Amino acid sequence: MTVDRIARLHIQLDDIEPLIWRRVEVPLTMSLKGLHDVIQAVMLFEDYHLFEFEAGGRCYDVPDPEDLYERKTFAARNVRIAALIERGIATFSYTYDFGDNWRHTITVEAVEDGNPSIEYPRFIDGERRAPPEDVGSTSGFEEFLNVMAKPRHAQHREFVRWYGGRFDPEDLSVDIIQDRVAKIARRRTLGKAGFAKSQNQQH
């Protein structure tokens, strides 16, 4: 059994203090679309909106045949992380939800052999909870945090109802993140096993 080579990535949400970040390990064979799925999982986003990676002067997304701007983009599912690293790209950006404009800086911290007993991708660590969907960019998130931290604030009940409960900016919900990432890893493992089986049947 071949051992996956993996990249350790540091993912940081830009323009927010204190820092919101995650560290993950992903296979080099993973596509940028796969990495999008991982970022959604570790940031607890819901994949409601469009996304785009920008790396080495090129943009990668899910191309829209009806794109009015006719921007030159490449299909994120056709580009593997290994290809970026081979081009010498050590940092690149990921933007999710062009309305709220959540820009992330992704840094390749290391490339190494994976552990054959571990299913990748996997979540390593991180700090602080990411903004909820549709909170209204960094300024909206700051207002949201301010109101949520003050039970006597006039809008507190309204915000709690909108969010669906209390919001603890320090709480990563590590168990939920690990469960979401494990589902992606399981799908990859099952997909690889199915592919290997189909190859064996052809021979």
UniProtKB/TrEMBL annotation:
Coiled-coil regions listed in the entry: none
Protein name: Plasmid pRiA4b Orf3-like domain-containing protein
Residues annotated as domain Plasmid pRiA4b Orf3-like: 6-174
